[in-house]
Design brief:
Helices cover 63% and strands 0% of the residues. The two termini are 29 Å apart. It folds into 2 domains: 120 residues, no CATH class; 43 residues, no CATH class. The radius of gyration is 23 Å and the shape is extended.
């Protein structure tokens, strides 16, 4: 629940900053390690910050579809009836399916019921409320300026350097993450 609340808050904060301009203007940083965006054309040229309809309609439609698909129990039930999930969680059946062996054994478990429970609804609402509260706090609060020699300031500077915004850096981190994940899976085997 905490992970979904923090992730949701980050997405909401970014949406509020990008689409509605809510929050303080970003301060310029003395670090020259970050990308500056120089040479990029602005998407909105007028000072009134009116957004083109395509910039608001696409996210609105995607959010509506996500909300509708999550709120329709028949759709969730139809997805749960997909026997691929049962095949995937049963090692013997999965191996037989992948290897194309005839006469695959029957599924060991039953397909879980897709239904609403009071606990799930309350946890979902709590997670959503936490995400909204965290996002609101993040866009309203001005971050304090720490001295350059403060350990937290040095840590944040180091993290900012790692997240440079350059495609090659992100690909390097992606490959490192995949390697670490593969090593962890291999260690578990």
């Amino acid at each position: 629940m905490a992970a979904s609340a923090v992730t949701g808050a980050a997405v909401l904060r970014a949406g509020l900053r990008v689409f509605f301009g809510i929050g303080p203007a970003p301060r310029s940083r003395p670090d020259h390690e970050e990308t500056t965006g120089e040479g990029e054309e602005p998407e909105i040229r007028s000072p009134q910050r009116t957004l083109p309809p395509t910039m608001t309609m696409v996210p609105a439609v995607l959010l509506a579809l996500a909300g509708v698909s999550g709120c329709l129990p028949p759709l969730a039930h139809a997805l749960a009836l997909a026997h691929g999930a049962t095949d995937f969680t049963d090692p013997a059946r999965y191996a037989a399916t992948v290897l194309g062996q005839p006469g695959t054994p029957p599924a060991a478990g039953t397909v879980p019921a897709a239904e609403w429970t009071g606990t799930a609804v309350l946890l979902g609402l709590l997670s959503t409320g936490l995400a909204i509260a965290l996002a609101t706090t993040a866009v309203r609060r001005r971050t304090p300026t720490l001295p350059a020699h403060h350990p937290l300031a040095r840590t944040v500077r180091g993290l900012r350097r790692l997240h440079s915004g350059r495609l090659g850096d992100y690909l390097a981190w992606l490959i490192l993450g995949i390697a670490v994940l593969c090593a962890a899976i291999t260690a578990q085997s």
